[in-house]
Write a structure and sequence with these properties.
By secondary structure, the chain is an alpha/beta fold. A seven-stranded mixed beta sheet has the order 7-6-5-3-4-8-9, sandwiched between helices. Strands 11-10-12-13-14-15 form a six-stranded mixed beta sheet, with helices on both faces.
């Protein structure tokens, strides 16, 4: 089958690197993997990774998963995540990535929303038995036909992917490498509620380009990625940047600072991609002296309105690029200058390298008439964010070619730069997790009279959850039984106990 005119996919990028350097290092596990999953860390060359990807793809094919069906993935930031995503694509599947803090309630909602046919997880992650959670969620999702996992002590009925790697099948099927096909599904919360956001390979690659080109990640870089890959930004900042560089990817399961620094120095990592607050703390602690191999640092800002007021970057040997993240709508990046201050961001096309005027590789930034920031370009998916049609008009409105992030923004008349002033109203962000304020109130009401669940402003994570009930211990048990995630459960911890 002639595939010369097809656009590239993530697996096609991987196979190009494989053909060029099969014996070079591709993936290196975090040093603390034994603690996180109970499995020893691995280090794979491109040839070894390719064999593992083919074995996992064969398992999915043998399990009877049809081409273009959705497979849900809830895995830690270890090499199994990258192998599973590429294997699913090699088998012609679409990957829905689930955050690790999601428990049964969120899992069931997402599985039903995407009609997922399979789910992949690990037996244990950070002491939590995710295999049991996945099995219970699968029992409530009628579309699920196959549940599989990595690690030991998997429950009855869950297929072992470690066995699939140890005794690989030779099953394969012809897949047209077309980057315009659906590749991933992530999940967002907007004022209209919870929604699934599907993206093509090209859209994800565009996100990786926005980060790698602006920060000038070199070819064959050794990349430490300490940002959870359960979102569009996390995928772009791990798999995307890695495959565009053609080097080695070292995922880090957040967060153990000593482990992170030791592995950066051990492997002489030249690129670090991590949450902005962690990056700035490393700079305050003397990054130049402690991590001398770093040359490129990408700070991922889940709260982009905080970039402008952040402290100046002081590390002399490493450049800092601020990545502005807007939920699952999209992102853009801006590298800081020699003075260490955040770069001015102006409306219009943004791309890199900067000496290419009018480059639109990354996309476009614009201000809407209502004073919010909007994005358009190759990484931005319009349909999931399209506004509902007006109920009082029979005339169809012209389709919108951008996504309104709902972040309030204004134009500085003296500099021409955009200033992001506040996050979307009615949405609470706790780290990488977004909730509707109304949903928090509803969960609090379910706990009975006198119970309160609210979000308080927090400088580091955007918001933090706090709860109050007549009996906090019983409130925690009730939330666990409802299948809610630990952010809500721990909001009702006793304040006198250790946090």
């Amino acid at each position: 089958m002639n595939q010369s005119n097809a656009s590239p996919t993530l697996d096609a990028l991987f196979q190009r690197i494989l053909a060029r350097q099969p014996d070079e290092t591709a993936l290196v596990d975090p040093r603390n993997k034994q603690r996180v999953t109970g499995q020893p860390p691995q280090r794979l060359t491109y040839a070894e990774a390719d064999r593992a990807i083919s074995a996992l793809a064969a398992h999915f094919i043998d399990a009877g998963l049809p081409t273009h069906s959705v497979i849900a993935v809830q895995l830690p930031n270890t090499i199994e995540f990258m192998l599973t995503v590429l294997a699913a694509h090699r088998a012609g599947l679409v990957v829905a990535v689930f955050p690790l803090l999601w428990r049964q309630a969120e899992l069931v909602a997402a599985l039903n929303r995407t009609s997922a046919r399979a789910i992949v997880t690990s037996g244990r992650i950070d002491g939590v038995v995710h295999a049991d959670i996945a099995m219970n969620a699968a029992a409530e999702a009628f579309s699920i036909r196959h549940v599989c996992g990595f690690g030991g002590e998997l429950p009855e009925g869950m297929a072992s992917l470690d066995q699939a790697l140890a005794r690989p099948s030779t099953s394969a099927r012809a897949i047209i490498q077309d980057g315009r096909k659906a590749a991933i599904i992530t999940f967002d919360v907007t004022a209209e509620g919870f929604r699934a956001v599907p993206r093509t390979h090209l859209s994800l690659i565009a996100g990786g380009l926005a980060l790698s080109l602006e920060s000038d990640v070199p070819a064959s870089a050794t990349i430490m990625s300490a940002f959870a890959p359960s979102s569009f930004a996390g995928l772009a900042g791990s798999i995307g940047v890695w495959l565009l560089s053609g080097g080695a990817l070292v995922p880090h399961h957040p967060f153990e600072g000593d482990v992170l620094e030791a592995q950066i120095n051990e492997l002489a990592c030249d690129t670090l991609i991590a949450p902005a607050q962690l990056v700035l703390r490393l700079d305050e602690a003397g990054l130049s002296e402690r991590l001398p191999s770093l040359r490129n640092v990408i700070a991922m800002w889940r709260a982009p309105e905080q970039v402008g007021s952040s402290q100046n970057w002081t590390a002399s040997q490493a450049s800092l690029t601020d990545a502005y993240l807007f939920g699952e709508a999209g992102l853009f990046a801006a590298r800081r200058g020699d003075n260490g201050a955040p770069a001015l961001v102006k409306p219009g096309l943004h791309g890199a390298p900067r000496e290419m005027p009018g480059s639109s590789i990354s996309g476009e930034i614009l201000l809407t008439p209502k004073g919010t920031l909007a994005l358009r370009g190759p990484m931005v998916v319009i349909a999931p964010y399209a506004p509902p049609p007006p109920s009082d008009s029979m005339t169809a409105q012209a389709p919108r070619d951008y996504v309104d992030t709902e972040y309030a923004a204004r134009l500085d008349r003296s500099t021409g730069a955009i200033s992001i002033t506040s996050p979307p109203s009615g949405i609470m962000a706790v780290g990488g997790y977004r909730f509707l304020a109304a949903d928090l109130q509803e969960w609090g009401r379910r706990l009975g009279q006198g119970a309160l669940l609210t979000a308080l402003p927090d400088r580091l994570s955007g918001h933090r959850l706090a709860g109050r009930a007549q009996d906090n211990a019983r409130a925690r048990e009730a939330l666990l039984e409802l299948g809610l995630n630990p952010l809500m459960v721990e909001a009702f911890r006793d304040r006198g106990s250790a946090a």
